Amino acid sequence: MVFSSPVFLFYFLPIIILFYFSTKVLSRNNNSAKNYVLLIFSTIFYIYGSGIYILIILAVSISSYFFGLIIKRENINPVLKITGLVFPLLFLIVFKYTNFISSQISSLAELIGLSEFPVTNIMLPIGISFYIFQALSYVIDVNNKNIEPEKNYFKLLLYISMFPQLIAGPIVRYKKIAKQLHGRQETLNDFSLGATRFVYGLSKKVIMADACGIVADTAYNTPLGSVTAPVALIGSLAYFLQIYFDFSAYSDMAIGLGRIFGFSFPENFNRPYSSSSISEFWRRWHITLSQWFRDYVFFPLGGPYRGTTRTYINLWIVFVLTGIWHGADWTFLIWGIFHGGMIFIEKLFALDKKRKRNITGRFITIFFVFISWIIFRSNSIEQVLVFYSNIFYPQNWHLSPDFMNVLTHKNLILMGIGFLIVFFPKDFVVGKYLEKVDDLTSVSLRLAVITILMAYSLFIIASNNYSPFIYFQF
Amino acid sequence: MKKTSNILITISFLLFLLLPQAGLLFNFVGEGEEFQNRKLSPYPEISAESVFSSSFGLEMNSYIWDHFPLRSDLLKIDHWIDYHIFKDSPVPDKVLIGKEDTFFIYQSITKYPKNNLSSLNKYKEIFTKAAEIHRKRKPKIFFVFSPSKASLYPEFLPDSFKKKYLVGDKKFRSELEEYSGKTKNILLLWDAFNKRKNELSSKSPQTDIDKRLRYLFRPYDQHFHWETAIYQAKLIVDFLAPGKWKGETFNKYFTNYKYEKSEIEKRFFKIDLPEPYKEFIHKDFFSAFNIWQIGRKSPNGLEKYIEFKKKGPEKITPLNKNLVVIHDSFLFKSKYFITPFFKRSVFIKWKKHKVSDFFIPIIKNADIILLHGFESHFFAKLKSIEKILDNLGKKNSHHPLISLYQ
User: Fold this and answer.
1) I need a labelling partner for B76 at 20 to 30 A (CA). Which of A469, B140, B244, B262 fits?
2) Distance between A435 CA and the closest CA of chain B, angstroms
């Protein structure tokens, strides 16, 4: 179920709000009752979009629950401990990477003349990378004695499957919301701020991201032989904007929904395109994923404490894993290596420190992020090369009718606005400004902005010009 | 102030979520398939299998998207914003807005010329086969190509489209012209229409309607004005029955021009785009020319056709021939003005570029068969035409409507 679809907006969300707050009133704010409402609706939410794959969530949550309880004990068999940690990962490997691995073995077998190796065709369950990482973080944190294991299975299940962040994050740590799972208070202020955040996210998605998305998709779906310089350049610029507006929109909506129901989810974006270095970019982009890899991969590998060479190797390992976390393809692997490489160079020459709050640093960072998104978005390495050659060695400036047709005034104006937003001064955040001030003018302004955004989003949703969120596929 | 602000935002957010449902209370249901100009998604079947395979969710999404209350009204507003605020086509994949607010059907510019070119050999094969039948035996087979708006008015295309379009289109047309010069059964209307275009453009318009009528096509549609339709009928009658045309008086069977909803508005845009339009007064026309009209449906009810018969004292002496015309929407208006010149005429409209087997015996019993098509997607009809030609060589099977021609 996509947050920007009518079924979610006009059926699922009003119904769960009605049930949730009715339960709150009728049960006199009984936390368990409210949790059960959320759990039931989260299950419906996932079954609606992914059907039988709900069983994976159940299996992962059951294993995390039991291993959480067992791991805590002293004298536990190390094999059992490792099994507890590895078990959720197996689902990720099987469902996310088997197709890629089998296709590579098949190609290799064909190359060396061996008999045909069967290529699997396993469907990727929506959001698997997110909820597996949440489950893993829970088991690891229990193992590291950072948190107490949850004794109530349904609370753990709710933590793993809560619908606002179930399919595209933010990746929430158990310790961040454990208290809220056991007792929380929803307030009018929370509801209002949550709704505001949700509307910002919705409008970012349906107005901005989808306008950029249609331009990017047309460019990247152009047959390789017909790609020209403007197609490659404009299409890639559109994708540069789309991925930010799309993914940050989902996070805004998830955080907003969480707040409506009394949860405080961590921020996932902090104006990443205003970064002055790639290192800073990763502190601002998909923050919860970066922190996950920092805490559960980088530091356990030794972090920055085992010498310079080892630090660089650790960093590279983290970015290779970050790349393949996004998808099983060579392009994602190369994208991860590219970012690892950029950070390696920055650290080697201390560029991240020299460029702090530096406008040149911002442009250099944006340039490298931009070219890295081309690797990320391309369907093959060949496409990456075709796009690069057209951007950096432009020869053909022709615009195909299909591409011209998506360069409507609306899409171009919205892309222009998108760039303005991206290039706003580093600390300028419209949403926070609107949230902070509290006089009559700003309240009226806030209400007007929200109403306009809601109305225009509604018109666009009605015309069915939507695409699913990009991060659903990861 | 903060509390007031919170209350107002909460209420407006809840209203936003409930607005479409509230529409139900006031009976604002979707306007359905006619409004959308497509088949809407049906309500999905619920079963354990469909739910667990997640197909239920996908089908339900489509159903809700198509049917949620107020959708049509919201869609109209979105299209209005696209067209009037952003000056864009609300459906850029279907309608292209050219210079001076001239509309073109997008596919007829981008996709079809390419398909025509790649089908050239097939065209020639079909024409050769038809010429063979034409020479040897009854019925006589003719082809008529109606020109597209883009090929007659390329100056109104956006520059980036013009170049691309003209290359493919000109090549196709020159090949076709070269081939039609070798045979006498293909009528290409480009030259005649271009001549007409030049005549019209030399007139000085007095009113806004006059200005619009300087063109052969309707401004917000790819089809002709009534005047152009009559002109096309004249060209066809001159081709099939030289010297017979006496249609100068047809103009009096129309109302005066007035502004009405445009075809594009009805089909795609859903916003107010009036264009000059006049009604054809069928009744007076048929009565004046002693024509008896019968609308019929095939037994499966899917295909429709219209038969016209001449009766009573002749105002225009018709050819003593049975004519069958298989046509698309570009002959829809012209057909009335062809009928007075034939004893009987049957007009069958291509349905998705095909003709049902039901019509084969009718076609076989015609004296003259006219295969008409809009130039941009004539290629799509070639397969069906080949089938018709193949059937013409076979023996008649019994058909209840054969008696029409006996």
Assistant:
1) A469
2) 10
Do residues B213 and B172 lie in contact, with contact meaning Cβ atoms separated by under 8 Å? no
Rounded Cα distance between A421 and A205, Å, is 14
A196 to chain B: which residues are within 8 Å by CB? 9, 13
Active site residue A409: no
Q: Mind listing the pLDDT tens digit for each residue in B305-355? A: 788 887 766 666 777 888 899 888 888 889 889 988 888 888 888 887 878
pLDDT band of B63, cuts 50, 70, 90: confident
Q: Is the backbone peptide bond immediately before A394 cis, with ω within 30 degrees of 0?
A: no
Rounded to whole angstroms, the Cα distance separating A267 from A255 reads: 8
Q: What residues pair up with B188 in beta bridges, in sequence order?
A: B145
Tokens read off for B103: 């509309």
Contact B6 A191 (CB under 8 A): yes
Please, which residues have CB within 8 angstroms of residue B20's CB and are 6 or more apart in sequence?
A6, A10, B68, B69, B70, B71
As a whole number of angstroms, the distance between CA A252 and CA B224 comes to 51
Q: What is the dihedral of CA B87, B88, B89, B91, to 10 degrees?
A: -140
Contact A99, A119 (CB under 8 A): yes
Assembly ipTM: 0.85
Can you say whether residue B192 is alpha, beta or left, with left for phi > 0 and alpha for psi between -120 and 50 degrees? Answer: alpha
Q: Given CB atoms, is A115 within the 8 Å cutoff of chain B?
A: no
Provide the residue type at A125 as one letter: P
The CA-CA-CA angle for residues A302, A304, A305, to 5°, reads 65
| Nearest-angstrom CA–CA distance, A48 and B54 | 6
| C-alpha A270, offset from chain centre | 13
How far is CA A292 from each of CA A11, A256, A310, rounded to the nearest angstrom? 34, 22, 20
Identified catalytic residue from A182, A286, A326, A339: A326
Hey, is B40 helix, strand or coil? coil
Question: Helix (H, G, I), strand (E, B), or coil: what is residue A184?
Answer: coil
Residue with tokens 């076609």: B363
pLDDT tens digits, A29-67:
899 999 999 999 999 999 988 888 999 999 999 999 999
Q: Are A166 and A130 a contacting pair, CB within 8 Å?
A: yes
Mean pLDDT for the stretch of residues A86-100: 89
Residue type, A66: F
**What 8-state DSSP symbol labels residue A51?**
G
Q: Do A460 and B17 touch (CB under 8 A)?
A: no
Q: Using the structure block, give the residue that is written with the tokens 């952003």.
A: B86
Residue A453 contacts by C-beta under 8 Å, 6 or more apart in sequence? A199, A200, A202, A203, A207
Residues 402 to 421 of A: which have CB under 8 A from any B CB?
Answer: 402, 404-406, 408-410, 413
Residues 179-208 of A with CB under 8 A from B: 188-189, 191-192, 195-196, 198-199
Asked if A438 and B2 come within 8 Å (Cβ–Cβ), the reply is yes
Q: Does A165 touch chain B (CB under 8 A)?
A: no
Return the number of other C-beta atoms located less than 10 Å from residue A270's C-beta. 14
Question: For residue B65, how many C-alpha atoms fall within 13 Å in the half-sphere facing its CB?
Answer: 19
Between chains, do A52 and B53 touch, taking CB under 8 Å as contact?
yes
